[in-house]
DNA sequence: CGTCCTATTGATGCCACTCAAAAACCGTGG
DNA sequence: CCACGGTTTTTGAGTGGCATCAATAGGACG
């Protein structure tokens, strides 16, 4: 059930058979949620974290006027709100962007791991710092990249992240987002995203149609975006 | 020496006398660094983390054209690159914005804590997730807030963070940043920061002059910024 | 008291936003 | 299988916030 989480972890460090068992034992229950459902609400006391098994989720914050900023996208295998374990509540909401399947992990089981399994604890800690690294890269995009570079960058990032969990076909992957969703990730309007996607399509770099991304020229796209997957820490090391 | 770190931690959870001793024992050495010195460089293997004792530091990423995005500011008491312990290297640079004093903490001592002191481990973990929360709030600023709200917001944030470590005088605090530095935090140009600061000054909300911030109307500033310190998790809880 | 850095102001331009509307797509039910 | 309503995508025209370019003023320091 948590195969994708294991893929994600094993791309970064060894996970022993015992540790794998413990991780499997974390899941107390699974749940299906419909699209557009807010699964975790900001400021609510939490005692459970969620692993995304299938679908696509996001973390977002919003302003009074209804404008929304998505601060991170989550692909299957992501421990979507693991940080709620040390934080005890969240400063943002977590929403399903499409129908999703999630696994529920009670915090007391995570607590138990921290008491008895240091290496696994460090692995979990690592995963939350990986999310922070993604936040930082998005800050760079939001603050300094042009609209075309922003879109190019997020499409490169998602290619890498989907690839890790075996959800790409070559340079193509399914991305069930609307242009409106994308705009909320990138600090743009949907209209401008639309125009910029057309540019990227016309320059034969990437096509995003029918919820599918086809990267026609990865090197070119990465160059435009100044994309370097370093910040995703896809290298195996003892943590 | 690490009094400000202790203030920061004890604003969020209890720290026992034993834990305090262990934290004090983390420091292997201290160092003075000059302004504008990059203390930690991206992609370099690390075996030491730094606690900021005095001064002001930042994390930043940059683009080929030399544009820079500061992703977080660090005030005294911050464990500036604690996340390099799980990550093993950083995806960004860490720089001293003014002359700073830092404490060096070897990773093997952190490793030892994770092996023997679960609660302290969770506290350290918590601190890295707090940095991530700040990143998310900055994403919201960079993506959706207007220039005036962005400036107002960061000045509110810094007030709260300086206050926690006892470095405010009422609604005033010393902030040794140039307008150029601020611009690099906010995804703006220094020129526009200058104009916007004038607006904020003229609307009697806040003054930033001679490296000093004086908030004349905190409620008004917070309202403009939609500032809510929730994301800084200044509430004491068992972690 | 000159030099460098920082702050300030003015003029102009462009990237992305807003407003408006049509076209394409999609699930649903008759 | 097609009509239908809602969502999403696409395109056009006009606007504006922040950037760029240019230049002066102020402050810190040797």
**Runs of chain A with pLDDT <50, length 5+?**
none
| CA-CA gap between termini of chain A | 24 Å
The helix fraction of chain A, in percent, is: 40-55%
Order of helices and strands of chain A: HHEEEEEHEEHHHEEHHEEH
Count interface residues per chain for the largest interface: A-B, 48 and 48 residues
- Estimate what percentage of residues of chain A fall within beta strands: 15-25%
Largest sheet of chain A: 4 strands, antiparallel
The overall average pLDDT of chain A, rounded, is: 96
The number of helical runs of chain A is 9
Strand arrangement, major sheet of chain A: 2-6-4-5
Based on secondary structure, the structural category of chain A is alpha+beta
Question: What would you call the shape of chain A?
Answer: globular
Quaternary structure classification: homodimer
Quantity of strands of chain A, as a count: 11
Overall radius of gyration of chain A: 18 Å
Which labels suit this protein?
239 residues, alpha+beta, four-stranded antiparallel beta sheet, 9 helices, globular
Task: Quickly describe the structure.
The structure is a homodimer of 239-residue chains. With 239 residues, chain A is α+β, with helices and mostly antiparallel strands.
């Amino acid at each position: 059930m948590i195969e994708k989480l294991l893929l994600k972890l094993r791309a970064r460090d060894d996970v022993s058979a015992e540790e794998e068992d413990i991780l499997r034992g974390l899941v107390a229950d699974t749940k299906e949620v419909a699209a557009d459902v807010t699964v975790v609400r900001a400021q609510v006391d939490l005692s459970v974290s969620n692993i995304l098994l299938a679908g696509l989720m996001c973390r977002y914050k919003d302003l009074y006027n209804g404008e929304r900023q998505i601060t991170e996208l989550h692909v299957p295998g992501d421990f979507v709100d693991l940080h709620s374990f040390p934080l005890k509540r969240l400063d943002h909401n977590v929403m399903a962007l499409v129908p999703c399947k999630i696994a529920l992990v009670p915090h007391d089981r995570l607590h138990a791991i921290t008491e008895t399994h240091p290496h696994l604890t460090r692995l979990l800690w690592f995963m939350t710092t990986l999310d922070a690294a993604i936040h930082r890269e998005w800050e760079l995009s939001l603050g300094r990249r042009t609209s075309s570079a922003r879109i190019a960058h997020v499409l490169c990032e998602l290619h890498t992240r989907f690839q890790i969990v075996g959800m790409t076909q070559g340079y193509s992957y399914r991305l069930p987002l609307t242009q409106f969703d994308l705009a909320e990730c990138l600090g743009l309007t949907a209209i401008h995203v639309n125009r910029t996607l057309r540019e990227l399509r016309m320059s034969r770099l990437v096509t995003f149609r029918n919820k599918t991304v086809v990267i026609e020229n990865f090197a070119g796209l990465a160059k435009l975006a100044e994309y370097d997957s370093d910040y995703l820490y896809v290298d195996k090391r003892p943590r």
